[in-house]
Input
Amino acid sequence: MAIAITPEAQVRIRQLMAKRPEAKALRLGVRGGGCSGFSYVFELDLAEAQPTDKVFEHEGFTVYVDQKSYFFLNATELDFVDELMGQRFKFNNPNVTSTCGCGESVSF
Output
């Protein structure tokens, strides 16, 4: 898989999906927006994969990534961190050239 998911993130994803049994997969991606140009997509997808999606079967869940986002997310690690400011999913993406001050928006 070109997108690695840490054990901590896997546990949290399984917990989220257990609360939404109608979800077909976790959708990861990037979309235009934010102060640096792009923001990450992290959502439970209720639909089947689109014909152009990359589909990855993981231990206990499926991940969809649209073709355009896959270009930007290749070699990314998805982590789940518990920090002083709270819990969150964190994209460790070597393709990023800069981020905004809050880290929620990136450029490639």
Observations:
- The chain has a mean pLDDT of 89.
- Residues 53 and 66 are 4 Å apart (CA to CA).
- The radius of gyration is 14 Å.
